[in-house]
Amino acid sequence: VWQNCLKVIRENITEQSFKTWFEPIVPYKLINKRLIIQVPSQFFYEWLEDNYVKVLRKALDFAIGKDGQLEYSIIIDRGAPKAQVTPLKIVEPPKKEYYNGGFKNKQDPPTNLKNPFDFKALTDAQHESFLNKSYSFENFVEGDCNRLARAASYAVAQKPSTTSFNPLMIYGGVGLGKTHLVQAIGNYIESQSETPKFVLYVSSEKFTSQFINSIRENSLQDFMAFYMQVDVLILDDVQFLSGKEKTQETFFHIFNHLHQSGKQIVMTSDRSPRELSGMEDRLLSRFKWGLTTDIQAPDLETRIAIIQNKVEEEMAEMDDEVVEYLAHCIDSNVRELEGVVISLIADSSLTKRKIDLDMAKFRVKSIVEESQKVISIDKIIEEVTSFFEIKIADIKGKTRLREVVLPRQVAMYLAKEMTSLSLKAIGYHFGGRDHSTVIHAIQTINDLIGVDKELAANVKALKTKFKY
Ligand code: ADP
Ligand code: MG
């Protein structure tokens, strides 16, 4: 019976859709005129239900008759939270009644879609993973700051979707190696795995724009079909999905489907899931199924090793004293560290001069100046208020409560130190205070830092947040 159904279905939809949505279905039972089919996930069933009602009806008419009925059962293998070795199990089909006469008024899926991202070409031809081959485990320097993240990544790379690290979520500040690590996972799987695997690296930004485009171009089906086939999905910078409800919802479905079909998911974020505001709880709770691990800023030794590695990679030379100087100066962002090393190497080959301490100092100085310029006062206010757990409205408002006054003064002090704004401009950003208030704030904090160790440490910690 199912074969007959498939025949009808195949004639009515695209090959791609057929492959994605109907080939995975397993006919389970035929009881009287009720056909029960097994589908791989809840989402799969919902998708069929939403998009292929008519064609399924047609197929049933043909294969069973007008009173033929269809029921779904959802296969749970490697079932979610508890993971691992749950044997194949059949769950109760969803309660809704289908195909009892009048069915939903849904459009047939459009067949020849224009597609801005050409998912079909991608899926039919060899899969293109969008991986950057230059990121590997070999050229990733291990240190205390990233040991766990690296170990988890390596485990996933060796045995995708069979470890309990599914999903694997790596979070940490800008330029600390998240993208490097997850790309290394992808590259490793692509090159080492015995059976070919479709590894896909995508930034959350690109995912979002693909999604939006597919809606605009009426090709959501191709978009979904494309993502459904991925064996290893690497989604970079998920914080970008914050507040984008529809995109999150779609990712949630893809996530569920892939996870339930035993596919590996890897994600990164610039902050911990706890701090990801604007994310749906049900999505966040999925992250907990696997492993969440952070990457910290590298310590001095790791920074030295990273510089040495880079110098070696570029087949250049750098004296230890220069290496140490750089490692001391640039302590919070590996990308910036690399940038300085590369530009020094370039300078030296242009000027045919050996890299010396003066050159290094000059470079570092310009980098620091550059980074100070781009720090915005809004960013400072944001960081300070979240650090002291007060409201932005309060820091800009009139209140003279000590819990607010001190953070306000700290923020003004940092604004003076780290931006090129005038005192007047700074006052303006704090609810239109005048420049003498700002001067007073700066003096107060300067004085306090000398005597109050805790405050001094807090200010220092805040400053490092703006280093990149
Ligand atoms: P993120 O995605 O966390 O912002 P990236 O992965 O893009 O950071 O890393 C920034 C740069 O620093 C990349 O060129 C990367 O290769 C390099 N890098 C970061 N951490 C390391 C490390 N531990 N070893 C070697 N290179 C690193
Ligand atoms: Mg990145």
Summary of the model, kept short:
By secondary structure, the chain is an alpha/beta fold. Helices cover 53% and strands 10% of the residues.
How would you sum up this structure, described in words?
The chain is an alpha/beta fold. The protein folds into 4 domains: 2-90, 2-Layer Sandwich (GMP Synthetase, Chain A, domain 3), CATH 3.30.300.180; 147-295, P-loop containing nucleotide triphosphate hydrolases (Rossmann fold); 300-374, Helicase, Ruva Protein, domain 3 (Orthogonal Bundle); 377-465, Chromosomal Replication Initiator Protein Dnaa, Chain: A (Orthogonal Bundle), CATH 1.10.1750. 53% of the residues lie in helices and 10% in strands. The chain contains 21 helices and 9 strands. The protein has helices spanning 2-12, 15-22, 42-51, 53-63, 119-124, 147-158, 178-192, 204-216, 220-228, 245-260, 281-287, 300-313, 320-329, 334-351, 357-374, 377-388, 392-396, 402-418, 423-429, 435-451, 453-465, and strands spanning 26-31, 34-39, 69-76, 89-90, 168-172, 199-203, 232-236, 264-269, 291-295. Adenosine-5'-diphosphate is lined by residues 139-141, 146, 172, 174-180, 306, 334-335, 338.
